Amino acid sequence: MKSILVRSLLLLLAGALFFAAVGIVMTWAPDVPVDELKARWARPPSRFIAVDGMQVHLRDEGPHDDPAPIVLLHGTSASLHTWDGWAQALREKRRVIRFDLPGFALTGPNPENDYSIDAYARFVRAVMDQLGVQRFVIGGNSLGGQVAWATAAALPDRVTALILVDATGYPPESFTRQSVPVGFRIAATPGLRLLAQYTLPRGIVERSIRDVYGDPAKVTPELVDLYSAMTLRQGNRKALGRRLEQGYAGDVALLKSIQAPTLILWGGQDRVVPPEVAQRFARDIAGSKLVMFDNLGHVPHEEDPSRTVAEVRRFLGS
Fold it and tell me: Do 150 and 170 fall within a single domain?
């Protein structure tokens, strides 16, 4: 009887290992060199500039005599493409600068493996210096929002206005494991992280995007193609693990020092950074304006560009 039980367990184990191996083979996805991705994802007006040992993917559109260009920063595992809708709406009258942050999309890993908020703020300053931009409006979503407010605190004489879109920075005590997109959970789990560097199930990418939308039905196959390609860029999956290790809690005491006019936009259905956090930003940044979009999620600028950018226009116009 005991030997039968042992054989049964061994057969179950063998079967599980077989199906696991089949799953790995079917989802095998090695890194893709950046040059192979440029043809589709870096069409004009994209260009690359050398900053801190990296070739930074950047788009710089609109009138270059704008005295305070609008700089837009994406969130974790996103890219400058997340701002396509805003850029299209603003570039006729304003200069709009957006770029892929180190560790993500076509810019790829930081050679120093430093993904701290201070390093990102220094990087933003270096890009602006390279472009010869002295004063600018800065906006960002999620991680990009945290980098934006850290930059505003560090460069008060250069940042003329601040736009936060579902930004991070406060200690994540209110977060639950279930609120974090599944792709990030995998990248933050040591055993799975190594496997994730060589496989990329399309279903995981799609589910991760759906997790950050208020209306998951808006997630299209083309959007999944974009996020998949940006993830596969050589070195990005390893960089994501390092970025998550360094956390999202920032020096929120700096928020009280921000003097720049500030607009806070938030998705009422944000399951990653809950709407209560928006209220904290509004309390800590003196004179800030908060606008809540009840039916949108963690990336409201991407989910509904026209409605969210309308608030930006009103804010900048005033």
Answer: yes
